[in-house]
Structures are given as C-alpha cells and as structure tokens.
Amino acid sequence: MILPIIAYGDPVLKKVGVDINKDYPEFDTLLENMFDTMYNACGVGLAAPQIGLSIRLFIVDTAPFSDDEDCTEAEQKDLREFKRVFINAKILEEEGDEWAFNEGCLSIPDVREDVFRKPKITIEYLDENFETKKESFDGLIARVIQHEYDHIEGILFTDKLSSLKKRLIKGRLSNISKGKINVDYRMRFPDQKKKR
Predict the structure, then answer these.
(1) Is 71 annotated as belonging to a binding site?
(2) What are the DSSP E strand ranges found in 96-143?
(3) What is the pLDDT of residues 35-87, one digit of tens each?
(4) Pair 69, 15: CB distance under 8 Å
(5) How many C-beta atoms lie closer than 10 Å to residue 134's C-beta?
(6) Coiled-coil intervals in this record (predicted)?
(7) DSSP of 55-109
(8) Is there a binding annotation on residue 132?
(9) Which domains, ranges and CATH numbers included, belong to the chain?
(10) Is 148 considered catalytic here?
C-alpha cells in the first residue's frame, strides 16, 4: 500500500526515533508499504518518520543512481544491487574529507541543495530479519545511508545548510509545509492532520 509522505514542517520529522524489536506489529507489511511508497515517489531511501512513525527504521535502494555516468562500472554495479533495510542503526564512524553532493528529500519536494558529508561510514544495524550487521560503505551508498540515518535522528538535510541558504529557501519551505506545491506522489501536510 502506498502511504502519504509527511511534508516538511510536521513535528514528527524533528523527533529522534525509538528502537524497535522483532515484535513490532505487522512489521513485514510496514516494510512492504515503505518500499511501495518509496518506489512510487521515485526515491532512493525512505525513513519511518517520513511516513509518520518515530521509530529507528529506514530503507535504501540506490539502483536509480546506477545510471550516473560519473561512476565507474564497478560503482554502477554496486549501486544497482544495493537494497537494504536498516533497523536501530547506529553510525559508529565517519571518515575522510567532506564532499558536496546535491541532495533532495521526498519530504521536501523541489528543494535541492549541496550538502557536505564524509565519504566513508561504518554502521551497525539490524537487517529485516533482526540480525546484527556491522559494515562500512563509501561514496553515494554512504551518502544515502547518512541522509536516511539523519531522519531517524530528527535531522533534515536543510538543517545542514548555511544560514544564508536557509534564508534563501525559507519561502519555498513555508509553501511546502502549507501544501502549496504540486507533487506526483501522495503527501500529508502539517495542517491536513487536523482534518483527518
């Protein structure tokens, strides 16, 4: 089932998610719904807060980035095949010199800005079977994971922008929170909650 994506301005996007365990109600259905929702919106990642749940869960599928002509064949293959579920994730280490990449977010449609992040991460998490994993990632895969990880920490990519950039996009962010935007996927805007 395709769920509405929560828009910028909703308090749920600023909350730190709580850990879950394998007894989480209807977990398999939730995962299926999250993947359906992400693919419907042409996203490469989706975190539970973006569908209104303050839990430490996010999904990633970097296949759309595999068409990037700046990537080597090996990188394209890695991107094409990278699809993961991250539960109760904790980034243990971020390494390297920060690099800029133009990021966007399904909760903040039509706003894209350069965000600086470190190129390599080590992360510990539970997979969809609640088995513990500890892995290192770099490049675009690391960046998508960092972006989604920020969501479960109550951080949006716009929080990482300079004061000047924030002022320049303030009006656009305000319009998104009021629902004054056209998107081709389902969204729920902060003032719509009262009507439900």
Answers:
(1) no
(2) 99-105, 108-117, 120-126, 132-138
(3) 999 999 999 999 999 999 999 999 999 999 888 777 788 888 999 999 999 99
(4) no
(5) 10
(6) none
(7) BSEEEEE-GGGGG-TTS-HHHHHHHHH-EEEEEEEEEEEEES--EEEEEEETTEE
(8) no
(9) 5-103+111-185 (3.90.45.10)
(10) yes
Give, in degrees to the nearest 5, the angle at Cα 116 between 20 and 149: 5
User: Residue type at 117?
Assistant: R
Using 50, 70 and 90 to split pLDDT, how confident is the model at 118? Answer: very high
According to DSSP, the β-strands at 99-105 and 108-117 are: antiparallel
pLDDT score recorded for residue 67: 82
Question: How high is the pLDDT of residue 192?
Answer: 63
pLDDT in tens, 164-176: 999 999 999 999 9
Backbone angles phi, psi at 17, to 5 degrees: -70, 155
Pairing of strands 57-61, 108-117: unpaired
Tokens of 40: 């419907």
Which position among 32, 75, 148, 153 bears the catalytic label?
148
